[in-house]
Amino acid sequence: MTDHPLLFNGDMVNALLAGRKTQTRRVIKPQPILQPNHPPFKDRGYDVWWHPKTACQTVHALRQSLRDYCPYGDIGDRIWVKETFAIENTCEYDEHIDIPTDRPVKTIEDGYHLIPHYRATEPEPHITDGGPDGDDDTTKWSPSIFMPKWAARIWLEITGIRIERVQDIDAGDITKEGLIASSTMDLIAVWIDLWDSINAERGYGWHVNPWVWAISFRRLRGKE
Prior knowledge:
Blueprint: E1 3-7, H1 10-18, E2 23-27, E3 33-34, E4 48-51, E5 55-58, H2 59-65, E6 78-82, E7 85-89, E8 106-107, E9 113-118, E10 155-165, H3 171-176, H4 184-199, E11 211-219
Parallel strand pairs: 1-6
Antiparallel strand pairs: 2-11, 3-4, 4-5, 6-10, 7-9, 8-9, 10-11
């Protein structure tokens, strides 16, 4: 069993915490490339795809063999969620403060503590910055990519990995992605908007129908 970091935005963090999100889709890089003239399959009506990890294969074989190369882990591995955060250092305070028990806390020199805060679920916490004015009411949020492993509050266990095109998703799986809508048509529209907001500018929009890792997981209690 190994641990792998994975970034989630604020909305998806809240969906994870609410128990609505049990799947995520991430673009496969590099993308498999269709080989329309590759023998011996071209005369039998088979599509043949090339990927540097698997060479040329039929769709069925590609889905099976490429699964072994998922960069986010294998079934049974753990994912620790990286989210937008800030770190509070208790050495900046003269008075005693209560140490929270609802999140990981790191003990440092002289018995002081580092306390993480999470933008997805917290109002702007008052954090002393140690500057010349003594404190700063504006929290210095750090991008999720910089979150250290010890500060992660959400841990997931991978329960399934599929290789598919993003347009293969159905309404049931969109719901498992953590989205909510009043109808199936609205649900699909919400999913397309979300997908394109993250991936379109990078060249992997819905209309391109990129290949994706479809990862299923369950939330762990702590790190279990």
